[in-house]
Amino acid sequence: MKKLITVFAAGAAMASFGSAANAATATADATAEILQQVQISKTADLNFGTIVPDDTNAATVSVAANSAGTRNCGGLTCAGAASVSSAAFDVTGANGLNVDVALSGLTSLTSGSNSMPISLNASSTTLAMTGSAVALYVGGDLTVAANQPAGTYDGTFTVTADYQ
Predict the structure, then answer these.
(1) Given a cut of 80, is residue 4 above it in pLDDT?
(2) The whole model's pTM is what?
(3) Could you tell me which residues are beta bridge partners of residue 80?
């Protein structure tokens, strides 16, 4: 019995050496590139200024999504032009790559229980990174109801910037 086990063990050892002699191998490299994280910082808030509502008609007041933040009062009386501005952000990322921009979180401005619908728009939905800060502007359209109650209306929105 010992002889039989020894013969089987020797045969198994020879079989394993024989298959290893026919094996082929190859190597490969593994790499990873780490990009600079996208950074965004606010440099100005969106401000529609002072608006006087109409007694009978609703209207839309707009602030352009550009560096000037130009306001269109839609037929209403507006004041406080010096305080009007589009929101402004500086976005940085890896040079030569594109960043997608998304806006979220704001559908109305509120003052107590009163509200006004708002829609936001960005100066661009895709920014080309240049190695230095790229400007992004956010403007919007604010719907002012007839006899809109007086108050300071506000709200918060989020800007998300991420590589494509």
Answers:
(1) no
(2) 0.82
(3) none
